[in-house]
Design a protein that fits this description.
CATH topology of the largest domain: Rossmann fold
Oligomer: single chain
CATH superfamily of the largest domain: ANL, N-terminal domain
Bound molecules: zinc ion
Shape: globular
Number of strands: 21
Number of domains: 3
Structural class: alpha/beta
Number of helices: 10
């Protein structure tokens, strides 16, 4: 998740403790009680959507439905899927007309998919986000107030630093920010020194950023650092990524899958089970199919928010496949929230800069620019970066300059940046036909 939440977004101690108590209980509930909890929340969402969200009100009217027609999870199928394109197109129509009462904050997000959108998360949705992370991390022994390190670039760029600072300690959050834009052999010793000084017990980061950090530490001969656990987010954690991080930092990596829209959250426990956080959001699997190997069963993730009344998403097509067990399985950890086999989320290349840094956070760039419908970064040679932009009406020379400026701050001045306006049908896909935001023809180590 690219958003850097501010501490004031979470200043709701009563709400947080209340939901935390609920979440401590719901992860162990028998399936029928968990379902009842979901359906109770769903009823609130459906009523709010019909009464106060223009897009849903019109949709229900068009389909001749009333909130009473959606009595439970099985009735959700009466409603169509909500695509990312629809979210972009409908924009303010998805915002509840009484949203002010729920104290929403707007977050500009790339969704890490190259398609930026404005999301409104209300107070309860922010409490949910906090409590979800708190529980997931506590599975690995985290206690509120423990020091942790987090890899990211957004924080460094947003504060209008030159983006060159390697680390920053935030005593009030007990967080050591590590600049993922500075991951490279050149800065490894400095980054390691900050970790030694502040002794974070956990590390959080994008799967690829965690991998490249471990790789650079290994290459630089830094082998004395360890964490209790690493929390990997937002991208596919490949076996190669996991093995490198676990051996260099001598701890387990707990993978997770989620998105800012707040409808789906899957996280790994210490027994390696990928748990669906069914109390966080309602996850359905659409278009379930078996692959030719006869073993792999995939379903497309479709999520429904259970808390965000300011901008509720119902049957939101997240766009990723989840690998399912052919029969329901229980986890040795004893939690009853269901398991999936694996998550097939985003997988992007890193940009390798001429000075040897691995940039894994190109997707944050649209958050500093207006007028981008879709953006794609293609590293053609060691020194040439092509940026394909599908613009919308807000795009102009000024936005182009802003984009170029922001990219330069990430990749450095020794890289040539070429921006091209393209049409949607000119978006480059990889060999499997999948659209990727970052494609590099420069191989790591070359
Ligand atoms: Zn488990």
């Amino acid at each position: 998740m690219a958003i850097d939440f501010r501490i004031r977004d979470f200043f709701y101690p009563v709400g947080i403790y209340r939901l935390r108590r609920t979440f401590e209980r719901t992860q162990w509930l028998p399936p029928e009680e968990l379902r009842a909890y979901q359906e109770q929340r769903l009823a609130v969402i459906i009523k709010q959507a019909y009464n106060h969200v223009p897009y849903y009100h019109h949709l229900f009217e068009k389909l001749g439905l009333r909130p009473s027609d959606i009595r439970g999870i099985d009735d959700l199928k009466k409603l169509p899927l909500l695509s990312k394109d629809t979210v972009r197109r409908e924009g303010a129509n998805l915002l509840a007309d009484n949203s002010a009462r729920y104290r929403p904050i707007v977050y500009k997000t790339s969704g890490t998919s190259g398609t930026p959108m404005d999301l409104y998360l209300d107070k309860n949705a922010r409490i949910l986000e906090f409590v979800y992370y708190w529980r997931y991390w506590s599975w690995a022994g985290y206690k509120l107030g423990d020091r942790f390190a987090e890899l990211g670039s957004f924080y460094f760029l947003q504060r209008d630093y030159l983006g060159e600072e390697v680390s920053s300690w935030q005593p009030h959050l007990r967080r050591l920010m590590l600049n993922s834009g500075r991951i490279g052999i050149l800065h490894a010793k400095e980054m390691a020194a900050a970790i030694r000084k502040y002794r974070p017990r956990f590390l959080k980061g994008l799967a690829s950023a965690v991998y490249f950090l471990a790789l650079c530490f290994k290459e630089a001969g830094i082998t004395d650092l360890s964490f209790r656990a690493i929390f990997s987010t937002s991208e596919v954690l490949t076996p190669q990524y996991r093995a490198m991080a676990e051996s260099v930092f001598n701890c387990p990596v707990l993978d997770s899958y989620g998105h800012m829209e707040g409808a789906v959250a899957i996280s790994q426990c210490m027994q390696s089970g990928y748990h669906i956080n069914s109390d966080y959001g309602l996850l359905e699997f659409n278009n379930i199919k078996s692959l030719e190997d006869g073993k792999t069963v995939l379903g497309r993730a479709v999520g429904t928010s259970l808390y965000n009344l300011a901008m509720p998403f119902i049957r939101y097509d997240v766009g990723d496949d989840i690998e399912l067990f052919s029969e329901p399985k229980s986890c040795p950890c004893g939690r009853t929230i269901p398991l999936v086999k694996a998550v097939h989320g985003r997988s992007e290349d890193a940009i390798v800069t001429p000075d040897g840094r691995f940039i894994t956070s190109m997707f944050i760039v649209p958050e500093f620019t207006e007028g981008i419908r879709f953006v794609q970064f293609i590293q053609e040679t060691k020194t040439n970066l092509r940026i394909n932009v599908v613009p919308d009406e807000a795009w102009d020379d000024k936005q182009q300059e802003k984009l170029s400026y922001c990219v330069k701050r990430l990749v450095g001045k020794n890289m040539n940046v070429f921006i091209h306006r393209i049409m949607p049908d000119e978006i480059v896909t990889d060999v499997s036909g999948k659209i990727r935001t970052v494609i590099s023809s420069v191989k790591v180590g070359s």
